[in-house]
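Suppose a colleague, Dr. K., hands you the sequence of a protein chain of 444 amino acids and asks what its three-dimensional shape might be. Before reaching for any lab equipment, you can write down a predicted structure in token form. Begin with the sequence itself:
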Amino acid sequence: MNVDDLYIVLHYHWTKDTTPYPDGRQIIQLAFVLLVSAYTASRPGALVYVEKNEQTNVQRFFGSVSEVDATETDKMDEWDLRDEDLKTLCYGQISLILLPNPGGIRDHLVMEVDLKHTKGHDKRPKKKIFLMSEVKQPFFDIAMLVVAMAFLDGAFESKIRSIEDIFASRVESPRHSLQLRFVKEKLNLPICRQPISTHCGISTHEIKPLKYHTYLYYLERLSLAVGMPRAMKPYDLRRGTGEAVEKTAPLPLLQQVMGHVYASTFQTYMNQRVQSHVQAAFLGIPSEDALMNILSHQSRYIDPRAPSHYDDLPATTRASLSTHPEIVGLQEMRDSLAKEAKEMYGSMKNAAGTKIGELKAKTEAALRCAKAKLKKDTFEGARGEFFSTIDTLEINRQLDPSLLDIDKQAYAPEKIVHRLDERRQVAELMQISMQDLSEKNDMA
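The predicted structure, expressed as tokens, is then:
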């Protein structure tokens, strides 16, 4: 993925996504993880929490995952942040710093990110600190996302309570910088945290870190909604960042960014499409770099008209699920066992724990799995057919002689109307280009 691909994803995430999230923090967190992944080329294990049994969770995610899988029940297990060094990104690894801007009405806000939990950190601990600055395009401004989450957590040690307080603070002589420090109690608190189910509904946990399989679920849901042919994976951003750094940085710096001991390791991350216009080099003509860039990345395949979830499929396709031979067979077996159990024990409640009761429970479980697998296969088949046929359909439509005299209407995306005023305001603000704004208007 390159910057254009990420822009499309973030634009949809902030302005068009109507999928409900447990709370607003989850929306901010997802954008933050996407940006920090792109700006550091880090593996997901350095940013989100990977459990010991994470392989099982990932298999469940790629098998049959439902919206409930993005959350978990708030069990009685307690997390002690005083002694445990959580293998995830915490406040203690982030520094917000003000640098002097003598000619401006406010100082520069920059950020340092110390990735402690990179691959092999247990055997070869080595600091790797990335520097980040403010960006005029709101979609790519990661510092503001950290500030927003710090306000939500009450993490600032000073009396800062608003963004205006930050902009009002200046670096004065003899200091050359000011750090917006976090309170000691928050230093080991994960920046991105897990949504959980409670008796009051679903919300972000105060301590538990965001889990890897939850991040994967969010990525799949978002990338399919955007219109990508396949679900986006965390390593797509890592590869894209590696390609960008390779073009501008020397080999030792590329190794440091990617965390590779050997320079040859980067070959496994290289784009399958050769990142050079070899034809132009042979012919001795100028390289079509812009065209090569478009051809090499995922955004060329995006089509928002593709079905993004099972309910987008035609009613006839969804109705065929109930008549599938495997589903019909399991339903008949379940009904037969239920009838027999009621005849023997009077009710299914009385049959609980008996052999026939266990057989019925296993049949119901098999039926649920069969339905989930069939839905998944049907959905993926429909998406695959869409992307494999849409090019030919588009060309044939344009060449259809019966439509030549008809005014052709360009594709118009669905107009999104957010019900919450706050959500609508965020969507509008994110689309404002700050490039041409003055520093005073930027602050306003």
